[in-house]
Amino acid sequence: MKINDLDFYVVAVPDEEYARPRRSLFVRVATDRATYGWGEAAVGEPAGDWAVRRAAVQSLLEGRSIFDLEELHTLDALAPPVLRCAVEMALWDLIGRTLKQPVFNLLGGRYRRRVAMAVRLPPCSPERAGQAARERADQGYHTQILTASGRLEEDVKMLAEVRESTGAEVKLRLDGRGKYALESARDLCAALEEYDVQFLLDPLVAREFFLLATLGRETTVPLAFGRAVSSPAEMLAAVRCGAGRFATLDLSQLGGLIPVKRCAVIAAAARVHVTLGGRTFLGPGTAAVLHLAASTSGMTESHQCAGAPLDDFFLREPLSAVRGMISVPPGPGFGVEVDRGKLEKFQVSP
Q1: 217-265 pLDDT, tens digit each
Q2: Burial class (CB in 10 A: 0-12, 13-18, 19+), 160
Q3: For position 193, which CATH number holds?
Q4: pTM for this one?
Q5: Which of 118, 164, 254, 282 is spaced 20 to 30 Å from 305 by Cα?
Q6: How far is 311 from 61, CA to CA, in rounded Å?
Q7: Measured between alpha carbons, how far is 334 from 70 in angstroms, rounded to an integer?
């Protein structure tokens, strides 16, 4: 079965909480037998750039077998990780539809039927963060992510408000977003020790794993890494130097399900807990996270792949979260269908 067509859709959806649109690249890969699959990746570039790339990728992939997934990761035209992620994801969906199998069966089998979701709180005042956290907890989201501002007193106050509002029932993660120098990160960790955070993610401005490992030896706060991991080789370097007890992996940053799965194997060997996170999805990417987490035994923690309430904006049949958990779609491929009418409505013109 050969690839014979490729469609790109770059969409932008207003996001009032973050005061900027959320952009995704949707890729539809079709074959000479009138079958197709959908993929997605979060993007930040203008639509015009992707229109140019589509022609190059179309000419490169046309006539290739849909099963040549490994080869995708060697092609220069697919070097940008977000592009590779969307195309690879579409092929997984296409293969599953062709074989009439859910993708989790192709990735090793379904280890769990439901996947726990972590939700990120919007940037806001500490008081509003406490209120938002309580609302999310009442919806069943018992793992919540706070985003650091880089201002020590403000970040600690926000965490204190959220902890007081939610109590011990909610696991809290603080995403440092590389906002702290090593000395100020030490102060942050000292302040966090009384708030029982699940982990502190990427606090340091510098991306060197050995600096994160140094910080980890000086605090009891569990540390996590993610923004410096864009390949399995970098994952190996991180676990070798003891950069953290947790890793947060981003499909769009790593370039697809295959490299994320490889990173998870490396992490499991080093007894590092893996969560899926990073940039959230607007459609089939959400389902891809569910299938990946369902088929990977070591992914026992909650994963961030959508907002709360669940953002399934471009799916015909919405996914639903019950008490913070989403059932993995059991249908062929990723088990979801994209609404092309909605895509065209929100498509960004080149």
Answers
A1: 999 999 999 999 999 999 999 999 999 999 999 999 999 999 999 999 9
A2: middle
A3: 3.20.20.120
A4: 0.94
A5: 164
A6: 31
A7: 19
